[in-house]
């Protein structure tokens, strides 16, 4: 019997992220506590720029955006946020959505699979994803359970299960 396998990836549904940003933008425009604060959130190329007239307001806009991401099923581990930076009279926060598993994180996941996973499981790094193989599907499910329980700083999804 051939080996069963699955891929470990870290991807974001861009449409859901865009929807979350649009919802946050609408809420910021309509909420009473943001009136007159010049608070805004928008795409700037691949990054997200949050602007407000005070550091607290900028953080509040970021909090609204994070809430919308969670409701849309996007993990906050995918959101990389900078510190509020003063630029003239306004504060800016630049955030990016990260996709793919970095080489460093891929090595961490590989080590977890080797150390804690069942013995017949093989894993290999393929660019920004990992392929996990085993003769037993039960072993593959055990690996998924271990990785879901592990405290990693990257959002993992399991795809291509065969």
TrEMBL record:
One of its GO terms (cellular component) is cytosol. Transmembrane segments: none annotated. SUPFAM superfamilies: YajQ-like. CDD domains: YajQ_like. Keywords: Nucleotide-binding. It comes from the Bacteria. GO terms for molecular function: nucleotide binding. HAMAP family: UPF0234. Nucleotide-binding protein. Belongs to the YajQ family. This is Nucleotide-binding protein MTE01_23050. It comes from Microbacterium testaceum. The lineage of its organism: Bacteria, Bacillati, Actinomycetota, Actinomycetes, Micrococcales.
């Amino acid at each position: 019997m051939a080996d069963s396998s699955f891929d470990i990836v870290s991807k974001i549904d861009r449409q859901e992220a865009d929807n979350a940003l649009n919802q946050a933008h609408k809420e910021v425009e309509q909420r009473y506590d943001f009136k007159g604060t010049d608070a805004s959130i928008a795409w700037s190329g691949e990054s997200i720029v949050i602007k407000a007239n005070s550091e607290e307001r900028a953080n509040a806009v970021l909090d609204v955006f994070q809430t919308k991401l969670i409701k849309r099923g996007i993990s906050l581990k995918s959101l990389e946020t900078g510190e509020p930076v003063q630029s003239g009279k306004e504060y800016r926060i630049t955030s990016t959505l990260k996709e793919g598993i970095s080489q460093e994180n891929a090595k961490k996941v590989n080590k977890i699979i080797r150390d804690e996973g069942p013995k017949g499981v093989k894993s290999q790094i393929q660019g920004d994803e990992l392929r996990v193989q085993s003769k037993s599907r039960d072993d593959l499910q055990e690996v998924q359970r271990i990785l879901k329980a592990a405290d990693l700083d990257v959002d993992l999804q399991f795809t291509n299960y065969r």
